[in-house]
Structure formats: structure tokens, C-alpha cells
């Protein structure tokens, strides 16, 4: 099927042929050949320039999209490192401890961790893996929930200690008491809130780690499939000490 440009070019030549035959039948073939050569060279040059510009734009779009996927990988690696730090330094040592809600110290995060720029990844909806965008959204939401729970755990832990000081005062210093006695001192509302947020934190971090691993794997596969030859990040997780 000829392109629209070729059809228009052919129609123009046909129209000119008819005009020349009517105006100057004797010189029409010579004039037609000369004009056709000029028109063809002009058309070919313009079409080549158009195709070159189109190719450049396609390559630029391709490069930007591949870069967006790498940037998402970078965010996932940063989040994975922070999650590993949270597990190594805080959660894992007390994971099986029945008193982990009371023993787990307040967790503060002093590092700025990048988020996945979902707005730059809309093109994935037209890719071979359109569900990948939902996977990344779920992963980011889990990461946001972890941050929210660490903030809440910090608040509940402080409330627990403040109530304990209020009830026991200086008598608490140097005394040996059971965890159940501490819970009884602060009351079921405060101790229950601390227990609930602690359990939720453990569960959510585990789910966030799994979602992070799945998202990074799917991203690497998508880069290799949609943008062969483009660079991709490798995932190296090292627990940092900034959390």
C-alpha cells in the first residue's frame, strides 16, 4: 500500500502532465521529464529529512523511557537498602520475642529515600507488561506504609514511656519488673496500640521486601525486552546505618 506522500506526488505529476499536454504538446515530454526530476529530488530530499527527524525523535523517546525505568530501579535499590537496615538493626533481633512490642526501641529515619516516579512510567500501559505499573504502584504504597508505621511506632513508644514515667515516676529506676507489669501500668489502650503498630510494622516490612524484589525483577525483564541494548542497574543491597 503506497504511502500518502507517494500518492500525492503521483497525483501531482499526473495533473501536470495533463496541463503540459494541453498547453505545449510538442515540448511536453521534455518539460515533464525536467520538472519530474526536480520534483522528485525535492520530494526525496524532504522525505529523507522528515524520516531522519522522525527517527531522531523516536530514539530520544526510547532513550527517555529507558532512563525512566532505570530511575525506578534506582529508587527500588535505595528503598531495599533502607528496608534491609530496618530489618538488620531493629526488627530481626526481636522477631520471635513475645515482648518485642515493649523491647523494640523507637525507630527514626534520617535518610531521604527516593520514590518511584510513576508519572514518568505511563508508557508501560502500552507495553507487553501493562500490569507492571500496578506492581510498581503497590510496591511504592507498601514503602509509604512502612514509613508511616515507623513514625507511628515512634509516637506510640514515646506515649508508652511517658505514661510509664507518670505512673511509676522515679520508682521505675533500678527496679526489675516484668513486661506484663509494664503493660498493666500504662493500661490496655496504650499498650494495645503499641502492640498493634509493632505487629503491623513487622508484617508490612516483610511484604514491602517481597514487593521490592518482584518489582525490580519485573523492571529488569522489561528493560531487556522493550529496550534491548540499554543499560540496566544491578541490585546490591547493603544495610545502611542511617535509620
Describe the structure.
Helix 1 (4-23) runs antiparallel to helix 2. The protein has a domain at 64-226. The protein contains 6 helices and no strands. The protein is mostly helical. The two termini are 63 Å apart. The protein is elongated, with a radius of gyration of 34 Å.
Can you tag this structure with a few keywords?
243 residues, mainly alpha, 71% helix
Number of helices: 6
Radius of gyration: 34 Å
Q: Largest beta sheet, briefly? A: none
**What's the total count of β strands?**
0
Mean pLDDT: 81
Low-pLDDT sequence parts = none
Helix content estimate: over 70%
Roughly what fraction of the amino acids lie in strands? under 5%
Structural class, from helix and strand content? mainly alpha
H/E series, N to C? Answer: HHHHHH
What general outline do the C-alpha atoms trace? elongated
- The termini sit apart by 63 Å
Summarize the structure.
By secondary structure, this protein is mostly helical. Helix content is 71%, strand content 0%. The protein has a domain at 64-226.
What's the helix and strand layout?
Layout (H helix, E strand, L loop, with lengths): L3 H20 L4 H64 L8 H4 L28 H37 L10 H8 L1 H39 L17
Amino acid at each position: 500500500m503506497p504511502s500518502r506522500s507517494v500518492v500525492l506526488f503521483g497525483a501531482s505529476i499526473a495533473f501536470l502532465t495533463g496541463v503540459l499536454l494541453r498547453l505545449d504538446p510538442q515540448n511536453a515530454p521534455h518539460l515533464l521529464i525536467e520538472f519530474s526530476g526536480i520534483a522528485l529530488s525535492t520530494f526525496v530530499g524532504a522525505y529523507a529529512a522528515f524520516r531522519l527527524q522522525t527517527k531522531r525523535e523516536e530514539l530520544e523517546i526510547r532513550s527517555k523511557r529507558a532512563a525512566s525505568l532505570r530511575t525506578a530501579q534506582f529508587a527500588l535499590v535505595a528503598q531495599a537498602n533502607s528496608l534491609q537496615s530496618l530489618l538488620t538493626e531493629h526488627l530481626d533481633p526481636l522477631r520471635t520475642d513475645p515482648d518485642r512490642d515493649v523491647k523494640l526501641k523507637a525507630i527514626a529515619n534520617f535518610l531521604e529515600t527516593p520514590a518511584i516516579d510513576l508519572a514518568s512510567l505511563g508508557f508501560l500501559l502500552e507495553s507487553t507488561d501493562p500490569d507492571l505499573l500496578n506492581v510498581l504502584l503497590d510496591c511504592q504504597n507498601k514503602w509509604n506504609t512502612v514509613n508511616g508505621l515507623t513514625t507511628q511506632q515512634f509516637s506510640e513508644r514515646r506515649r508508652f514511656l511517658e505514661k510509664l514515667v507518670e505512673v511509676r515516676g522515679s520508682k521505675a529506676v533500678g527496679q526489675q519488673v516484668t513486661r506484663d507489669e509494664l503493660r498493666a501500668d500504662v493500661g490496655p489502650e496504650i499498650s494495645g496500640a503499641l502492640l498493634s503498630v509493632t505487629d503491623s510494622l513487622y508484617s508490612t516490612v516483610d511484604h514491602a521486601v517481597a514487593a521490592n524484589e518482584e518489582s525490580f525483577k519485573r523492571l529488569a525483564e522489561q528493560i531487556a525486552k522493550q529496550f534491548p541494548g540499554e543499560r540496566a542497574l544491578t541490585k546490591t543491597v547493603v544495610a545502611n546505618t542511617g535509620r
